[in-house]
Amino acid sequence: xxxxxxxxxxxxxxxxxxxxxxxxxxxxxxxxxxxxxxxxxxxxxxxxxxxxxxxxxxxxxxxxxxxxxxxxxxxxxxxxxxxxxxxxxxxxxxxxxxxxxxxxxxxxxxxxxxxxxxxxxxxxxxxxxxxxxxxxxxxxxxxxxxxxxxxxxxxxxxxxxxxxxxxxxxxxxxxxxxxxxxxxxxxxxxxxxxxxxxxxxxxxxxxxxxxxxxxxxxxxxxxxxxxxxxxxxxxxxxxxxxxxxxxxxxxxxxxxxxxxxxxxxxxxxxxxxxxxxxxxxxxxxxxxxxxxxxxxxxxxxxxxxxxxxxxxxxxxxxxxxxxxxxxxxxxxxxxxxxxxxxxxxxxxxxxxxxxxxxxxxxxxxxxxxxxxxxxxxxxxxxxxx
Length: 385
What we know:
The chain is an alpha/beta fold. The protein has two domains: about 45-200 and about 375-385, Rossmann fold, CATH 3.40.50; about 210-370, Glycogen Phosphorylase B (Rossmann fold, 3-Layer(aba) Sandwich), CATH 3.40.50. Helix content is about 45%, strand content about 15%. The chain contains 16 helices and 13 strands. Helix 2 runs parallel beside helix 5 (about 115-140), helix 5 crosses helix 6 and helix 12 packs across helix 15.
C-alpha cells in the first residue's frame, strides 16, 4: 500500500483498495465452485444471450457510445438492460428510452477529485451497489456485460467479475480511465481507437456524421462548441474574435451552454453581430454540417465525430481532464497537420486567423481518412462470438 501511495499519491490508495478487492474476488471464484456464487444456471444455450447489459455513463462521451451499442443490440432483437447512476446525465438519456427493456439507476458517485475520506466513502458505496448489480444480472439471466466506462459503470463491472460473467469494455479515450484500468485484466475484450485497447477499431460514430460528410475547401462558417454545460474559456474567446470574423464575412454558430445562452446572445447583440446561439440541441450534426471549422474541446467523441464529417478544428483541451487525456485524444490529428491543439490560456485571435488563412482542403480530406463507418458491427460481432 505504501508503494502505491508513493507512486500515485492519494489515487494510489484507491488503486490499492480496488485492485485488492478485485484480485481477492477473482482468486475466490477460481478456487471455489460456481454453485457457491451463482444461483441461476443457464439451461439452454439458445436463451443464453436473450438479455444483454450495458453500463456506464455520467457524461455525454460515455453515454453516446452506450446509446450506439444499445441501438444496435435492440435492432438485433436483444432485450437490453441498462445499469447507470442517479448522478450525471444517465437518467436524462435513458430513463424513458424506448430501446431499453429496463433501466436501473444506482446512487453512485465518482471517486476522482475527492480527498482520501471522500474516496473511501465513494468506494464503500460502490461496493454496496455492486451487490444490487449482482442481483440485477441474476434477475435477467445476463451472461455478457458491456461497460462504456465512467463511475456509473463501477457496480455493474465489479458485479460482472464477481458473478463470473463476460465483461467487455469500450474505452473512448487515449488515456484509459481508472475504472477501466482496474477492470481490464478481468475483461474478455477492451475495444478502443487508441493503443490502450486489446481490440483496436475505429471509433463507433453515429452513421449520420458520415452521411453529412463533406470536404471543406475554405472557411466561411465557424462553430464554437462549449458543450451542453458550456465553456467559459470558449465563450469568452468567441466573443473576443467575433468582430474580426464578422469583418471577414465569416458566419458564427456558438454552443454556449444552457445557462449562458441568454447572456451570450445579449453580448452579441450589443456589438451588432448576428450569431446562431444555442445551449443544447439533439441535432448538433446539422449545425456541424453547415460549418467549415470548429473551435472546441477534445473529448474523444467530439474528435472522431469531426473526423467523420471532415470538419477541421482548433482543439482547446479541457485543462482539468484526468491525465490531460483530451490533448492526447487529438494529438494524432495535429501530427498529420489536419488540426491544431492549443492550451485554452494561449489561444489568440492571431492563431485563429492564421489557421483560417492557411487552411487547405487536404486538412478536411485527411480527417475523413482517419475513420470508417459501421464500427459498431465489429464490436457486436466480437461480443456474440
